[in-house]
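Can't paste images in this forum, so I'm doing it all in text. The chain is below; anyone willing to post the predicted C-alpha cells underneath?
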Amino acid sequence: MCDQVISDDFNLEFIPKFREYGINYVGGGSYQVIDFCPWCGKKLSSSLREVWFEVLDRIGLEPEDDIPLEMQSEAWWVNDKYKIDKLYLNIGV
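Text version of the structure:
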C-alpha cells in the first residue's frame, strides 16, 4: 500500500451519496471500500450504498432512471427525508 500511495496510483475517495470511503486504484479499474481510517485506525461511518438502492426501490426507481437531484448527493441521508433509520435496520447494513 505504501508503494501505491507514493506512486500516485492510489486515491482515497469519499462518495457523499453513499456516505462511503474507499480506495480508488488508478488505471486498474478497482475500488475498495474501507471501514477504518488508514492513518489513525478510527472506525469510519458505515456505507449507505445498500440503503440508497433500497430507497430507490421504495420510490419506484431504477439506477438507470432519472434520479432526483437530492439522491445524487448526501442530501437524501442528511435530511433523512426517506426515514433511513427504519430502512437501515431492515436490510441489515
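The chain has two domains: 1-46, 49-90. The beta strands are 10-15, 20-25, 30-33.
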